[in-house]
Every structure is written in structure tokens, then in C-alpha cells.
Amino acid sequence: MADITHWADVIADEVLAKGKKHLVATGITPSGHIHIGNMREVVTADVAFRALEDKDADVEFIYIADTYDPLRKVYPFLDESYAPHVGKPLSEIPCPCGKHKNYSEHFLEPFLTALEHLGIHPKVYRADELYKEGVYVEAIKQALVKKDEIAEILQKKSGKTPVDTWNPFNPICNDCGKVNTTTVKGFDIDAETVDYECSCGSKGTVPMKGGGKLTWRVDWPARWKALGVTVEPFGKDHASRGGSYDTGVAIAKEIFGYEAPHPIVYEWIMLGKKGAMSSSTGVVVSIADMLKVVPPEVLRYLIIRTKPEKHIRFDPALPLLTLVDEFERLHSSEKATDYDRRMIELSHAAGLCHTDIPFKHMTTIYQVAAGDFDKIMNIVKRAGYDTSNEKCIRELTDNVGNWLEMYAPDNAKFSVQEELPVSTAQLNDLQRAFLSSLSSILDKSDELNGEDYHNLVYSAKEAGSELNTMMAESLNVDAESLEVNPKELFKAIYVSVLGQPSGPKAGWFLSSLEKDFLAMRFKEAAEYKPSS
């Protein structure tokens, strides 16, 4: 079978067929928590940028925060004090927590921090600053002069006829501060001003430089021209027939004389069975929260392994462990294909931590050590893992601790019991004989690793093995007639240490505990006689 080219490299080849110099852009409106669904856009853009870099393109990468968009409504996460601010640009609204310059920065700041953690480093622009600096002035002039032509394009492409009062520019009212309640009454190209009336009763004049913004369907193509965008990912909602990309292509070409950027259309990330993520509906896991529980390279891998046009179903509970397992297996596989290796390469980024400790093993180590980092490091050393990068191990430890607290189902959690659990009273004679014999073997053995413990327990059913022979003698039966079910033996281990009939992968679990502790606990459990 011929090697498959990764989708990012396919996109890079398509883009390079149009020229060598490119600007990859991505942008999100910071109206609420910027969630893992939004992450698909920025990771897709970053991966396209990196694929172009790898092919020696002259390429830049920018992120535009749509901070001049109006607040659409009082979202579920806001209190009613925000009702008067509906319709105002996000950059002109107070911060919900009082610690940021404005509303948009409240949501933008943690997102930009998350991008750093993901190894994504675009040049960041804020729309309000671009408007206030005059970057859009020429586009505003062209749009105002060619208003009717734009309206015709919108009607032709979308099938919707703009209302008579429609205008491509929305002034910000000097009195109420709203951007979606004004009507343009005239403009002066030379003075670069726009006259308006507002539904609040106000009339006035605003400068084209920062006094308002273009409507979204005109703003987008204006941005392409003003900044020189040649590649941009966007959600399927913008890509529908008659949607904003469709109208943007025509407006860019016919009004601004600019070729629309190469489109990368992506599908949604679905949150478990709850549907597509959306800040406004509250179906959301923020990127900041996700980075608390999973290594950033795994989050990158979540996006990179799936073609943009296919939706991703994401569940931060047990399926997250499966995702991490898949990534780690691929990372260490000697049979990885060129495609696999390319996925791993794109999942990595400068400054991202990586350890050789499997995430799932750390969930066991963490709980055995009850979160104590010194104890965790001792177990990690005993298990033979590389401990030279303590910073990365600490990051993994924090990820696992947060996952256990925030998303782990109850059946993934356990705690080592300090005292012998009373449930050991329910162990049968075979289980007691097994624990007693296992204790004796551990007493005289060296430290064992996970595989050693696994093999030792399974040797109980092999006639002639030391463990099998000792059990038979303890039960005073012929070894040949001894019927052993390993499942019952593992149950005895979990009951005696955790006080529950099941637990984590036994080899990892047992090797994470002190051998002397296990020998003593198994001996206690074997000899335990409940008081009548």
C-alpha cells in the first residue's frame, strides 16, 4: 500500500501551487470561554503553517481576535448587569472579573496562554486596535461607496435581500455605545466620517477610524485584503452555499480587488454525547481546563489525526485515556508508518514536555502515592523510567491529578487502605493460601517490576511453579488437582490492598507499592479472622 500523505502536507502543496509567499490567518470572537471546539481552528492553522514552513515557503501566521464584535446577548455565564451592554463592542465592555482591561481580554488572555502551552505562536491582532489604528479605513470607504454593489452580491449569493436601511458599516453610537442599533445617514469620504441615527434617539458623526465596524460579511474580505491573508481555516457554518465565505469570495474580488484565501473547512468537535461545543449554549470544555488534564501534544494529536472535514467526538472521561494510550503507542512504535511519524512530528512543538511514563500508569502511581510528588518520584525511579526531566514529570503529575478530580469516573479511582480492609473476611481458602504463599515469595525476592508481578500471579495456575506448589501445600491438596482462576487471585489482591474487588492494571499497581508493604499486607489478609 502506498504511503498516505498527511492532510496538512496536501494543503501545503495546494497552497504552494498558487505561490511561495503566504499568510495563514485564524480568528475567534472572545465572547465567552474559548473552548476545545475552537482549538480545532487554531491547531489546523498552526499545522498548515508548519507544513508550509517545512516546504520552505515564505510564510507568516497571525491570529485575529474579533474584539470589536458586539455582545449578542446575556449569555448563561453572565449576570443581568450585562443586559445594558448587549450591542456594545466586546472591547468596550467591563471585564466580568474586574482583573482585565475589558470583557474581551477576560476570555482572550487564558486562550492566548493556552496557545503558548500548545506550542502555537502566531502574531496576535485585536480587531478593535486594527479599527482604531485605521487599518480598515480604505476598506470602509470602498464599502460605503459601493454599498449597492455589495447588497447585490449578498442578495445574489445568499438569496436574502438586505433591508432598505442596510449598510456595510455599523457606527458606534456616541451616546449609548452600541454598534448594532445605528443607521448610516451619510458619509464624507474626504473627512473620513460617517453620520448616523441610533434607536436610542441619538444622532451624530463618527470617524471611520475606530468609530464603528464593517458588518461581518464585509469585514472578513476587508481583513483578507488589509492584512494579506492567503490561507485560512474556518468552520463549516461559514462554508455553506451562500454563507459568509461564499459572499466573501465575491466581495473580495469585485469590491476590494483581492483573491480570497485558500479555504480549509473544518467540522465540529462534539463533546461526548452532548453535541457540538458552543460557548453560548454552555456545551463546552475550555482549552484552559483541558490543558489541566491532558498533555498539550495529545491535544494537538486529537486534531491532527483527523482530516478537517471529519467531525471529532471528544470525551474527557475514560475515552481520553484511550486517546492518550493511542498517542503513546504510536510515539514509541517501531512499526510506525511515515504517516504515523508525520502525525507525531506535527503533534510535537518547541517547548512541549514529553516523558516516557504512560499517562495510564501515572494514574496508578499518583493514587498509590496519594498525590505526594516525592513518593511519586520514588515510584517512577523504582519503575525504571527516566527521571532526568522533573519539570515534565511534574506537569504529567498535575495533568493526572486534575483528570482524576475533574473527569475520571468512579471506577478509575482508588486509594490504598492504611489498615487491612474488613472485606478481606470474605476471602475463601484458596485466595488466603494464594496471599500467604505470595507473601512468602515476596519476603525473599528482590524488587519486582510490573511484568514480574504479572507473571508471578499467573504462575499460580502452573503446576510445578513455586507459587502453585506452596498453595497446594497450604491447602493440603495435590498440586495437580488444584484449580486456579487468576481472576479470583487478582480479586484477592485488590480486596486486601484497596478494599474493593477490582482495580488498575495489576502489574503497574503492584510494582508501584513497596514490596515489603505488600508482603506484610498479604500475610495479614491471609491470616485475618473476623471476630464473631
TrEMBL record:
Record's GO cellular component terms: cytoplasm
Domain of life: Archaea
Keywords, ordered alphabetically: Aminoacyl-tRNA synthetase, ATP-binding, Cytoplasm, Ligase, Nucleotide-binding, Protein biosynthesis
Gene that produces this protein: lysS
GO BP field: lysyl-tRNA aminoacylation
InterPro entries tied to this protein: aa-tRNA-synth_I_codon-bd_sub2 (IPR020751), aa-tRNA-synth_I_CS (IPR001412), aa_tRNA-synth_I_cd-bd_sf (IPR008925), Lys-tRNA-ligase (IPR002904), Lys-tRNA-ligase_SC_fold (IPR042078), Rossmann-like_a/b/a_fold (IPR014729)
Designated name of the protein: Lysine--tRNA ligase
Subcellular location per the Swiss-Prot or TrEMBL entry: Cytoplasm
GO molecular function per UniProt: ATP binding; lysine-tRNA ligase activity; tRNA binding
Enzyme class at the top of the EC tree: ligase
